[in-house]
Fold PorV/PorQ family protein.
Amino acid sequence: MKKVLIKLIVFTVTTQLGYSQAVSPKYSNEFLSIGVGARGLGMSGSQAANVQDVTAGYWNPAGLSGIKNKYEFSLMHAEYFAGIAKYDYAGFATAIDTSSHLGISLIRFAVDDIPDTRFLYNANGAIDYNNIRFFSSADYAFIFSYARRVNFLPGLRIGANFKIVHRSVGNFANAWGFGLDVGAQLQLKQWQFGVMVRDITGTFNAWTHNSELVFDIYTQTGNEIPENSIEITLPKAIFGVSRYFKVKEKFGILASTDMVLSFDGRRNVILKSDFASMDLNVGMEFDYLKTVFFRLGIGNIQEVKDFDESTYTSFQPNAGIGVKINKVIIDYALTDIGDQSESLYSHVFSIKLGLD
C-alpha cells in the first residue's frame, strides 16, 4: 500500500510538471541532473575536470578524449525511493582517429506500474478493483557525443553533446525535445580543469496531451484541462578542478570539486540569487595501485528551516568502492545517505569494460 501511495504522488507531481504552461519551469528535465556511473555518484558528481572514460558522454564530453582503449562500454542500474523508481544507463565510446572520439549514451528514469483508478467505480457505483489499470511514467535521454584533442595547445580537450529527450506519462501525455551541451578540459602539470555547459541553447520539450482521457474527471473535480505546451530547460554551467596526489609508491588520492551554476531562479543552495544560484560538490578517490578504489563525496548542501523557525545546514554524503580486474572495472556507490529513512538509501552498481 505504501508503494502504491508513493507512486500516485510521483505520478501527480510528474503530471503537473508536464501540464505546466510556464515557458521555463524550475527543475525542467531534472532527471538529467542525477548523474551516471557509480564512480561519479560516489564522488557526489565532481567529475567535470577529471572524468576520462565512457561516462564523460554525460559528465563532460571533452573527457572522452582521455580514453585509453579503442572501445569502452558501461552499464549502470540504480533504484530510488525504496525501489519504486528505476534508473538505468548504458554508454559506448570509441576512437575514430588519434585525436577524436565518439560516444553514445542512453538514460532511462521511470516509475512503472502506477495504478490508473479512473475506472475504479463500475456503472452501479460500486468499487471494482479489477478495473484498475497500470501505466509507466518514464523519461529517456539519447546523448550523442564528440570529443577532440586540440593539437596546437597540448593538454586541451573539447567536446559537445547533441541530446534527444523523450518523456511520457502513460497515454496521458508525452514530449519530445532536443538540446546541446559543450565542454572542455585542460591539464596543467598536476592540475586538471574542466568546464561543462549543459543546455547551452536551451533544451526544448514539446508536450502533447491526450486531454480527452482526463476531460470528464478534471471537469468534475474543477481541475484545469491540460493543453499542449513548450517547456524550455535553461542553461547550467559547471566549473571543475581536480588534482592527483601520489602517496608513497602504491597509494594515491584524487581530490576534485565542481561548482554548479544554475540560471532558473533562486534555489536552496550555498549561494543564491534571483539571477543565478551556485551549488558545490566535493569528492575524493583513494586508490591502491590503481586497482582498488575507495570514494567519498559531499553535495546537495542546503539550508533547512526547522519547526521552531531556526535553520541549519544539511548535506548529502556519498560513498563508494571499485575494483579493476584487467580491462573490467566494477563500481558500487551508496547515495542519498543523507535521508532520514533507511528505506530510501540508494544502491548504485555499474560496470565498465575496455576493449582494444
